[in-house]
Amino acid sequence: MLTLLSSLFHLLFFTLTLQCHIASSAILYSLKHHHSNIHHQRPMIHANQTNCALFVGTWIPDDTYPFYQSLNCPMIDPQFNCKLFGRPDTNYLKYRWRPLNCELPRFNGVQFLMGLKGKSIMFVGDSLGRNQWESLICMIYTAVPQSQTQLVRGEILSTFRFLDYGVTLSYHKAPYLVEIDVAQGKRVLKLEEVDGNGDAWREADILSFNSGHWWTHQGSLKGWDYIELGGKYYQDMDRLEAMERGLKTWANWVDTNIDQRKTKVFFLGISPTHTNPNEWIYGSTTATSKNCYGETAPISGTGTSYPGIYPEQMKVVDMVIREMRNPVYLLDITMLSAFRKDAHPSVYSGDLSPQQRANPIYSDCSHWCLPGLPDTWNELFYTTLFY
Known about the structure:
It is a single-pass membrane protein. Residues 104-383 form the Trichome birefringence-like C-terminal domain. By secondary structure, this protein is of the alpha/beta class. The protein is built from ten helices and 15 strands. It is globular.
């Protein structure tokens, strides 16, 4: 049954009757019914104008990688700096993504800067967006190490400038893309509001969005106390339905506020996690490890079918983008990243003590080492921008 919230919270939201639901209302039922119709077993293939299936292919060894070394890129967060924090193996750095029917052009940092002279790029989303942002900075920086630069880090907005070229790369933290407000110590996730966040996005020449992981967090990692939808407040609801409503709000904002004839807009596909070894250990009833801990090689096979369970969040992303009046470009890195169980920080993260590093339970199997897999995301980003 519905329970009446405290009088203090009642006054905060004026005369609204705030009720805590486990979502079972008619509107959420209709969302669930609609969502059930969009499931597909394999991801859709998105290709650029050259008709190359960029996101379907295979990983091949290549000793010319990586593009940079972590010691030569001081912008890498400790969370991603695996080499600095003791990762002993290096083979995970020496793989190149080869699409099925083409070769990716080699990333050229100088060409990137010259082609975008005077322009601004903003990555918007969660820490996977920050992972990609820092990767791109390092890939460019290694090409122009003598260039004048400026880094300003903030809690919400961080900016790196290549001053000699007038190129700005920013990261805006907005893990849900929609608004989350704090009132009287309570965090309210507003599934139908973007505008406060959007004020920071309007002036960028290139926008790259991502969202996904924070929608599924449970317990102490959950990012809200209440969800606001349709004038009502919920303590929780089906996470995929909440994500769908939030992304539809974001999509409508982009359709309404961004002129894609002037501003290029991307959405980064869901970055897969590797927390369940049973997804890649075939023919065995039990896995010998608990997660990505100790993994030093990609999953074998070619990237033409998804290894493991295709992320439900990606089905939501695909559906929402397809329903936009002017769909953004989906940088569909989900499947190619799913093969890279070897590329996570695991226990080689700056946040861990020596004792924690000796325990697989502390493995980070969500983010990615730098240098590493996000460099490939940026090779694909570069290809779609210039070819």
